[in-house]
Amino acid sequence: MSAEALALLEVNEATWPPARRWRLGPWILRDGQGGGKRVSAATVAEHGVVPDAPALAEAEAAMAGMRQAPLVMVRPGEEALDAMLERAGYAMLDPSVIYAAPIGRLTDRAVPRLAALTVWEPLQIMREIWTAHGFGPARQAVMERAPQPKTGLLARQNDHPAGTGFVAVQDGVAMVHALVVVPGERRQGAAEWFMRGAAVWAARHGATRIAAIATRDNAAATGLYGKLGMGQAGVYHYRIKPVEGR
What we know:
Blueprint: H1 3-15, E1 20-24, E2 27-31, E3 43-44, H2 53-65, E4 71-74, H3 79-87, E5 91-102, E6 117-119, H4 124-132, H5 137-145, E7 150-157, E8 160-170, E9 173-181, H6 190-204, E10 209-215, H7 219-227, E11 231-240
């Protein structure tokens, strides 16, 4: 497993935390309470371990008890686990890329005054934008659970709100989550200023690196992070077992 990718996934979980996590045999299970795959997926507790069929069945039952689909995150270097899950009928879901860069790469330009305001608690307009773009109350609750230092981001462009986002710092890394630019304001530079504003804020709170995660097929994110000089630090994907009757 890539040491950098593993470390960034740990930062990702610390800054976008499940409601609860615990060990069940060879597994780490997470109660996401509707907050999405990152806070709900199981992982193996020890790299290189491939749980046997009874352990997998026990984890599936525990996830069903939380009304969560059987879902596993497969990290770099876990090819044997991936193959086992495929044989067990799990389908691949959301191949994702971790992007990262030194914080200084994004703090080399002054951010326009209203391009990336930082505020915590989130303003009502921020909550409305998140909700309208798939980050409803359950995912906003994830932000509330995240420890300090953290902040919300609000952009203004063309004299009105252009988008919002969330960033938190852990172990010297600023992880950006829930970045949304409203449709009418896209391709006008708002996302770039968001990331630069996040980096400026994070540098003041001790961050030396900045990171973000996007699905592999998210062309807009790939273009944005590439333009900002953020390299690919690792990849991962999920495996999900279809639930009968769905």
